Amino acid sequence: MARVKKPKAMNAQEKLTFLLSLVPFLIERERVSVAEVAEHFGVDAEQIREAVRLIAVSGVPGETSTYQYEDLFDIAWDDFEDNDQIVLTNQVALDDSPRFSAREAAALIAGLQYLSALPENADRTAVASLMTKLSRGASAQPSQLAVEDTGSDATLALIRQSVTAGTQLEFDYLGARGTRERRRVDPLRVESMDADWYLRGWDHLREAVRTFRLDRISNPRVSEQPISHSAGDVVLPDTLFESSAEDLVVTVEVTNSAAALLADYIPDGAAREQLEGRVRTTVRVSHYHGLKRLMAGMSGVATVVEPAEARRVVAEWAAAGAARYDGDAS
Length: 330
Description:
InterPro entries: CBASS_pafABC_assoc_protein, PafC-like, PafC_HTH, WCX_dom, WYL_dom. 37% of the residues lie in helices and 24% in strands. The longest helix has 22 residues. The radius of gyration is 31 Å and the shape is elongated.
């Protein structure tokens, strides 16, 4: 008769490590058979049963420093004894730990849904796993949310397809000055600033890295031409926008508390004159349309000083916007 080999006995350190691994394993699976657990940990089924019986009398003492029922783990004993199934019915040690609220978890999950669409987030399996864990670990079931599609989402999907295929992306681009050109780029990175999304890529027309606003891209198409520049080949500057010799120099005054918001537009070495609660300095913009957008986001904290043309353009644009509200009111 063949002799059954007994499993090697664990020492105290090995048993502790085993139990610390077993508890989260059981909690994550909710219901699992003894045989499946034994196969996963590579131990005898009877060792699993003994460990489960030990877990069932373990826990964290309450405020009285004594163990009450609610302070201990518990299992579905009938299922365990009759069906060899393990179901934890009380999880004291983990239930007392801080958790995200249902609203917090829902907000994080919605954000992860959007981030998973960006081309640089290649490991979408990890993102999906994290969303599942957030849903399980919340103090209550998170609301079922989905991020609404926008006009830029179709472009994002094509950018992701272009990156995955390793081919160039073609599109029509409407410049800030109203000119439209067909561009062919190697997509490198998608970034956001305020409420706008931008594509940074190697522009084959300009033979340099360029930044494109997604809402100005139309008729995008993934070409069959392989990319010649990848994100690892090109050193991208830290700032989203770079100055050029054609930029317009504008003097502005901005409150000290808001000066940091203009950091990307203030050229290196620009003079700063400290006034009472404000600072006067210069910014570089590629066109006055960009200046209008910049000032719109800093209403009440920034003022255009010179040149006179810049002041006129911003003032007329603001007046036109105010007139539309006056018309609605009438």
